Amino acid sequence: MYTEIKPGHADALRKDLAAASDASEAERVHAAIRQIGTLHDARHVIFDNDTRFMFASVFDGSWDAYIDDFAKTVIGERFDKIFSHSVGFPGVKDPRVKDWFVAHQAPASVFVSAYPDLTVQQIYKDHRVEEAFEEVLDTPEFRAALENPANEDLVNTPAFQKLLEEASA
C-alpha cells in the first residue's frame, strides 16, 4: 500500500519506524507477530523526497482477518503510530480503517516466493522439528543406535539415508 506523508512528518515517521526496531519494542512486536502466526514479512519505505510511504507485507489467510488480528495486539498500536503520519488515516480501531487501507492498496505486478506452499505455522513447526532433530543427532545415544546392527535395516532405508543426508547439508 502507498500513502501520502503529511507535510513535515517524514522525520517523525522515521523516528517511529526506528522505535519499532528498538530492542524492547521489537521484542513486544515479535511476540505479537508470533502469537498471531500469519505474517511472513513486512517492509516500510519512505520515498519520493519524503512525500510518500509504502507498507508491504506477506501473510497467510484473508486480508480482513489479518487487519483484525493485528488491530487487537501491540501491532495495532504500531499501525496507529506509524500511519498517523499518513494523510487521512482514521486510526486502526475506526470502522473506516479497512476502507482506508483498501483505497491505498496497489496490486503487485509480480510476486515470487521461495516457499509458496508453506504457511507461517508450517515454517514455525519445521524449525522446531529441525532444532529437535539436530539436538538428537548430537547425542552419543543416537550415534550408538546408528552403529547398532539391530538398526541396520532402518538405517539403510532410502528415507533414513535421505534424512541423514539432509541433516548434514
Range of helix content: 40-55%
Major β-sheet strand ordering:
1-3-2
Total number of helical segments? 9
State the low-pLDDT regions, or none: none
**Content of β-strand:** 5-15%
Distance between the termini: 39 Å
Largest sheet: 3 strands, antiparallel
Mean pLDDT: 92
Structural summary, described in words:
With 169 residues, the protein is mostly helical. Helix content is 54%, strand content 12%. It has nine helices and three strands. The protein has helices spanning 10-20, 23-36, 63-71, 74-83, 97-103, 120-137, 140-147, 152-155, 158-168, and strands at 2-4, 39-47, 52-59. It has a three-stranded antiparallel sheet, covered by helices on one side. α1 packs antiparallel against α4. The chain is elongated and about 75 Å long.
List strands and helices in order, with pairings.
Layout: E1 2-4, H1 10-20, H2 23-36, E2 39-47, E3 52-59, H3 63-71, H4 74-83, H5 97-103, H6 120-137, H7 140-147, H8 152-155, H9 158-168
Antiparallel strand pairs: 1-3, 2-3
Helix pairs in contact: 1-4
Short description:
The chain has 169 residues and is mainly alpha-helical.
Which key features would you list for this structure?
about 170 residues; mainly alpha; three-stranded antiparallel beta sheet; 9 helices
